[in-house]
Design goal:
By secondary structure, this protein is an all-alpha fold. The chain is built from ten helices and no strands.
Length: 204
Amino acid sequence: MLDFFLHLDQHLLSLVTHHGMWIYALVFAVIFCETGLIIMPFLPGDSLLFITGALAGSGHLNLWATGTVIATAAIVGDNLNYWIGRLYGTRLFNEHSRWLRREHLTRTEAFYAHHGGKMVMLARFVPLVRTFAPFVAGIGHMPWVVFTGFSVLGALLWTGTLVTLGYFLGNVPLLRNHLEVIILGVAVVMALPFLLRLMRRRQG
């Protein structure tokens, strides 16, 4: 069962053939858990979006329904993760903790006060990081309205980019075989202006 969920993207066509519309519920659940539960960063994310886009391109799924389901799952999952971090995460920082001290919490709050929005949005394109970023934003007490705005923007960009790529280029072997590298490249390009500005501020 664990192997099935870890490689869900490889079983999608068969699932669509046998279960039809239920595939939308399954995709929602996987994206929601990968985004909303900090203990499940190992679930497929980027590849799942790409493959669902490819299935939409071949007529097996509806493109708009696919995009809506995935974006909604990502946004709802982000919010759950944020509130878990905000309500319970600060308990990890205390005088008895060797690694998570109160001064670390203060630095986290300061960082998210200045750069949290960009972090939440760009983290969406980086596996593992997108699972932890909302949790840390909650710990850092990033304002919920600001967090949600950037979460929505990041989810729409992530969904739109990968599902659209899958829709138009899902059957190109080069893309399918090097999807992780391509996504990382997109994330680096998007993050470059932010990183350069951060470096200039520190040098100044």
